[in-house]
Specification:
about 25% helix; 53 strands; Head domain of trimeric autotransporter adhesin; EF_Hand_1_Ca_BS; transmembrane; alpha/beta; 4 helices; transport; Adhesin_Head_dom
Length: about 675
């Protein structure tokens, strides 16, 4: 683009046209063009009602349009193009600076080579593009293409509705070249990215800090060079990665790749579903596993080895402590360097090893430990302490000293034995010898013929007569034949008398007892039968009444509970749906109200600026010859205020010059005027 020579402008503009150029509210008049020093209009045209074209090759075709400078085009009503090669083509649009384009209604493009094509869009700076409705692009090379999107900085892009991108370039691959994917970028609705190279590419995603990436719905990456690529994942700190759904990575260089996994600290990895890795370089690779710890220099070489960090590689396993390892399902390793190697094993304490399933280890081979403060066991599966074991030893004749069992001393026939087996062997030997002696005695003429020694027999099969036997005196003495014959007669007489007497007594007693017991038995049977029948009937009736009442109560309770739950769920669902519809309608109504409010404020600001410019220009008209006059004007309309500042000077007696500008919040306008008295 070549340079365009800018010629001095000396014009005569009617006061009504000046007011129109300054944005004042005045009756619609035919458009006018500035006259150049050479007496021409510089090919400038002002065809719109109340339009002004001032400068070289300017065009103001819309009503109340303004084109000031060189090669500017204001083709729509109330459009403004000021500077060089600016284009304003929609109602109320403004393009100010060099080569700017404002093609959206009420769009604003200020600076160099900016484009504002969306309705009420704003592009400010160098090479910015605001194409979305109500979008804003500020800085250099930024793009805001979504509705209500905002892009600020260097090369930032906000490509989705209601998105926000603030930042610039981050040399992600370190090659020193600016590449398209190294700028701050937002492509998800309601997403936001702050920082050089930050990117939020999914709905509701947030990337806060340089080089952060949030690529799934609801994901958040905060800090530096973090990546949150899982659905609703969170990555906070420095160079963390959260790729699992609902996963969290916090700290530095952590990775949470499992669903609902958590990695916190430095260099930790949680890859199992619902796994947790906390500390330094810990690994939780199985579902529902927990690894908390860090580095344990097992070999003492001062460098971290792969087998010297905390690992939980078994399902539902837990490793707590520096270098602890839980390698199988439900294993637990607690303590620095502890290892639980098989399923359901427990290793407690530093460097403890549990290598058998369903066991608890408090040490390792060659590095055993004592378990102290153990209560006495009371159940069959309880642990036994030394006190209880000492009692067992004492019962066997031994003892415990210094943690070791002291063997008992058993003395058998003068010989000492230190173990039960040897003592029983000695006893067995003695018994065997005694049995041999007994067998020898059984071969003699007189011997015991029963084990309990209640009978003595003599050898031989024809019988043996014992002679010269004295009369027996004690009740247990043997009797001879003379004593036996003398006693037979007396015994027979006594026996007959006693038998007759006892037989008569026994018969009488038996008859009486039988009659009595028969009567008692019959009465008891009748009473018991009546009692049990009544009890049975009463219990049956009570049980039936109780079960019927319980059944009715349970049925009523269940029915009431289910009915209440059904009503509660239906009510909650209805309330939620109504609330959602209300929120959606309120949001829509709020957006409509905001749009009308914004439009009303812009109109009020334009009116206030027109009033301020009129007051200022009226004061400049009183400038004295040879002196300049600085004037200030103020204006108000419907709660909006504006301020205008202008300078006027009479050059000689026939020429006047005036310059002015008006400001109201974000709205602004400027104008310049010349006047020449003619004969």
């Amino acid at each position: 683009m070549g340079e365009i020579p800018v010629r001095k402008v000396s014009v005569r503009i009617a006061s009504a046209a000046i007011a129109a150029a300054l944005g004042a509210a005045s009756p619609a008049l035919a458009g006018e063009s500035c006259q150049l020093d050479d007496g021409t209009t510089g090919a400038g045209t002002a065809t719109g009602t109340g339009a002004v074209a001032c400068g070289h090759n300017n065009s103001a075709d819309g009503s109340n349009a303004t084109a000031v400078g060189n090669n500017n085009n204001a083709s729509a009503s109330s459009a403004t193009a000021v500077g060089l090669f600016n284009v304003s083509s929609q109602y109320g649009a403004s393009a100010v600076g060099l080569a700017n384009t404002a093609s959206g209604a009420y769009a604003q493009a200020f600076g160099y080579y900016n484009t504002a094509s969306g309705v009420t869009a704003t592009a400010l700076g160098i090479g910015n593009t605001a194409s979305g409705e109500e979008s804003t692009a500020i800085g250099m090379g930024t793009t805001a293409s979504g509705m209500r999107s905002t892009a600020i900085g260097r090369g930032a892009r906000a490509g989705a509705d209601d998105s926000l991108a603030v930042g610039g370039w981050y040399d992600r691959n370190g090659n020193g070249w600016i590449e398209a994917d190294e700028f701050t970028s937002v492509t998800g609705r309601y997403a936001a990215a702050f920082g050089a190279g930050a990117q939020a590419t999914a709905a509701g995603a947030t990337a806060l800090g340089s080089a952060n990436l949030a690529t799934r719905d609801g994901a958040s990456a905060v800090g530096f060079a973090n990546t949150a690529s899982g659905l609703y994942s969170q990555a906070f700190g420095n160079q963390n990665t959260a790729s699992g759904t609902f996963s969290t990575a916090l700290g530095m260089s952590n990775t949470a790749s499992g669903t609902e996994a958590t990695a916190v600290g430095m260099g930790n990895s949680a890859s199992g579903a619902r796994s947790t890795a906390i500390g330094r370089a810990t690994v939780a690779s199985a579902d529902d596993s927990v690894a908390i710890g860090g580095w344990y220099d097992r070999d003492g070489d001062g460098s971290m080895g792969a087998d010297e960090v905390t690992y939980a590689t078994g399902t539902h396993s837990t490793a707590l402590g520096a270098g602890a390892r839980a390698q199988d399902s439900r294993a637990l390793a607690l303590g620095a360097g502890s290892r639980a190697l098989v399923a359901d094993s427990v290793a407690l304490g530093t460097s403890s090893v549990a290598d058998r399933a369903n066991t608890v280890s408090v040490g390792a081979s060659g590095a055993e430990r004592q378990v102290v403060n153990v209560a006495s066991g009371t159940q069959a599966t309880d642990a036994v302490n030394l006190f209880q074991l000492s009692q067992v030893g004492s019962a066997l004749g031994g003892s415990f000293a210094g943690g070791a069992f002291v063997a008992p001393q058993y003395v058998i026939q003068g010989s000492a034995y230190s173990d039960v087996a040897s003592a029983f062997a000695a006893v067995d030997g003695r018994l065997t010898g005694l049995q041999a002696q007994i067998d020898t005695l059984q071969g003699a003429a007189l011997f015991y013929s029963t084990p309990d020694r209640s009978r003595i027999d003599l050898q031989g099969t024809n019988g043996t007569r014992i002679g010269n036997l004295a009369d027996g005196i004690q009740s247990t003495d043997a009797v001879n034949l003379g004593q036996m014959q003398a006693g037979d007669t007396q015994t027979l007489t006594s026996a007959n008398g006693y038998t007759d007497q006892r037989a008569a007594e026994t018969l009488a007693n038996a008859n009486g007892y039988t009659d009595q017991r028969a009567a008692e038995t019959l009465a008891s049977a009748h009473g018991y039968t009546d009692q049990r029948a009544a009890q049975t009937l009463q219990q049956a009736n009570g049980y039936t009444d109780q079960r019927s009442a319980q059944t009715l109560q349970q049925a009523n309770g269940y029915t009431d509970q289910r009915a209440a739950q059904t009503l509660q769920q239906a009510t909650a669902y209805t309330d939620q749906r109504v609330a959602n519809l209300t929120l959606a309608f309120d949001a829509f109504r709020g957006q409509i109200e905001d749009r009308f409010t914004q439009q009303d404020r812009r109109i009020s600001r334009q009116g206030a600026m027109s009033s301020a410019m009129m007051q200022m220009s009226g004061n400049i008209a009183y400038a004295q010859p040879g002196r300049g006059r600085l004037a200030v004007g103020a204006g108000w309309q419907d709660g909006e205020s504006a301020l205008s500042v202008g300078y006027g000077r009479r050059l000689g007696t026939n020429v006047t010059l005036s310059i002015g500008a008006a400001f109201s919040s974000s709205e602004k306008s400027a104008g310049v005027g010349f006047g020449i008295d003619t004969p």
